[in-house]
Amino acid sequence: MLTKVLSVANYGLKAVNVDVEVDIARKGFPGIGIVGLASRTGEETKERVKTAIINSDFDFPNAKITINLAPADLPKNGPGYDLPIAVGLLASMAEITLPEEKSYFYGELSLDGSLRHTKGVFLLAIQAKEEGVKNIFVPRLCANEAAVINDLNVYPVDDLRSLIRHLRGERLIEPLKIINPEDLLTDIRPEFDFTEVLGQEQAKRALEIAAAGGHNLFMMGTPGAGKTMLSRAMPGILPDLTEKESLEVTKIYSVTGNIPPGASLVRHRPFRSPHHTTSTVALIGGGTNPHPGEVSLAHRGVLFLDEFPEFNRDCLEALRQPLEDGHISIARAAGSVDFPAQFILVAAANPCPCGYLGDPKRECRCTLHQIVNYQKKLSGPIMDRIDLHLNVPPVDVNKLMIDQSQSNAEPSAVIKQRVITARQIQNKRFAKLAHVHTNSDMKNCHLKAFAQLSDKANLLLKQAVNKYALSARTYFRLIKVARTIADLAGSAVISDIHVAESLQYRIRTSE
Amino acid sequence: MASIFDKLHYRGNWNENLFKKTLAVVGTRQMTHYGERVIDKLMPDLVANEVTIISGFMYGIDSAAHKKCLELGGKTIAVLGSGLNHLYPSSNQKLYQAIIDKGGLVISEFDDDFKPTLWSFPQRNRTVARLSTIGILIIEAGVKSGSLITAKLGRQMGKKVFAVPGPITSLVSAGTNFLIKNNLAKMVTDISDILETKSEFTQEKFLRDLDRTEEKIMKLLANEELTIDEIAHKTGISIADLSVKLSMMAMKDYIEESNGKYLVIND
Description:
The complex is a heterodimer.
Chain A: E1 2-11, E2 14-25, E3 31-35, H1 39-55, E4 64-70, H2 82-92, E5 103-105, E6 108-109, E7 115-116, H3 121-131, E8 135-139, H4 143-146, E9 153-157, H5 160-167, H6 181-184, H7 201-213, E10 217-221, H8 227-233, H9 243-255, E11 271-272, H10 280-284, E12 285-286, E13 291-292, H11 294-297, E14 302-305, H12 313-318, H13 320-325, E15 327-332, E16 335-340, E17 344-349, H14 368-376, E18 388-392, H15 397-405, H16 412-429, H17 444-450, H18 455-468, H19 472-488, H20 496-503
Parallel strand pairs in A: 3-4, 5-8, 8-9, 10-17, 10-18, 11-14, 14-17
Antiparallel strand pairs in A: 1-2, 2-4, 6-7, 12-13, 15-16
Chain B: E1 9-11, E2 22-27, H1 33-48, E3 52-55, H2 61-71, E4 76-79, H3 93-101, E5 105-108, H4 120-131, E6 135-139, H5 146-157, E7 161-164, H6 171-181, E8 186-187, H7 198-209, H8 212-223, H9 228-235, H10 239-251, E9 255-258, E10 261-264
Parallel strand pairs in B: 2-3, 2-6, 3-4, 4-5, 6-7, 7-8
Antiparallel strand pairs in B: 1-5, 9-10
């Protein structure tokens, strides 16, 4: 008997309908053949489904079984088809009857028949809503991902047995209650608070400016100065994710299996810090069935690249498109996929290979040649796309102890409030522009209209250009940073004090 | 000021202060890219030192000097070689208006309806030279040019003459190089050559500009090099305010930054 079960495949950030057809023939030699699934995955699926059915106290039919996953030309991968195949088999064996309403089945089976956490459930739920599919049967561990989509019955399935009882009408599974995204996205506490970072007042201010204007940031400092701690605290001063942003991020996290069991929407702004040995594909995304990379996992959040000059040259070059366009297109023979990748880049580097150049306490062991080579890597197209540059000096631990006792460090929540206010000003300013949301998005042609300098500010900037031999690129970047500083101060015009402060964050040619 | 002339026609708001510290900036009509860059380099500091720029309103160096000065928020005086009703060159209509709007003056010794003639321009040069208190700066000039006439007139009046050297292959630098070579003008390679010594400029600014906090910062830095965080800690000034102060002080050459630490510049 032939049965058809509905399921989905993930392609890029979209789920696509897949029909799982299961046929148990009366004639022919016993055996199972799967078509339409990558061969290796097919072999594995076969074994899991067979064992799970037997361990759920059913006899596995001794007949010729053919399983087809259609459409055949769509690349299908992963263990999510275990459940629809098992359900199809059981239905073909007339052990169960399928629900009359359209239903998706999706999930990986364990050998004992229980369902495991499977990636991509959130995308499946979105597809179900678009297709008018009423019921979805997914593993309980990731069912909450789907629970934010309304008009949908999300059945959390523990194991094959309970699903069978449900489909036989013996004991029904209670569908999940819809979760209101708004409830999830309020009252977010930062994972790291600025009060936890001792000292480094200038760096904190720089991060505040970066957060307010969406600027990329570069930090240079000796090991242990607190560069990583500072960057970790940055998502906490960015405005909370809006519902739309959270849905975008959740898609990426769901399809990569990064949503922890039981969790629903992504609530915190992402913070990603890939190691400098990361491959280009892992950083940018790719693979035959294109998969989002770190730049997309950092979407709407912070991408922290420590030991920046140690990254592979190709990796850094590949960052150009996402930095420029806010997304990354990955073209493969089968077609191209677009992943969003709008993040704030925080790059960090030591001043030299050993890290201690300029440190008052430890001696640098690098040769001049090494230092020159190292710093050479710190120039080029990516550095040109970074608006704020700063030195993070080593901190004196003894001094910090004293400081801490009389600490009046600002909590992240206070800084965040200022950032939000500055962002609101920018939203208003750029309301009519499609691709400009923050000051850092401004192209040079926008500066005249949106970043007017006062006469004094203009004079100061021109003087600085002469004094420090600044390039035209730096000149425009400084105007953008000054615009953000003025926004933080609630000032409509950019005056000389705003330019003066921005000068602190200019790029320094190797000192 | 007006008393040294028999008569003087002007447009704009008369302001004696404009004439207190003035520099005549003159040069060729055939300005090259080099001349433009020289103006870009020198003008910010001149404007910052509140020097009024006087020039002859001609196209080329004259116009570029007027324009740059205005762009940087400075004050400028244009001396015409014609009556004020005969704007020459007429393409400078916009500049004419901008000079007046930004608090400068357009002046002429000639009656309003006087048409420019061959001899009126040298006469204009004399006026330009007479009005300059600091001296006459020549940026790009040919060997036989009005600018050299201005320089000669200026010397006769006892004014200082400055010239910017240029490539020896450039025709429009031949005049300035000639002046320098024959000790007829002081060579200018940066602004301190014009504004006498740097220390005069700095000290003057020092006394006038240093406020309490800045003095405090100077005293701190006199003892040791400090990072911005350390200065903030010792003075109790917020990082944002301190950033502004330090940038300003660095721009005025009181202090400089090296490897993330600030130190006092001793000169």
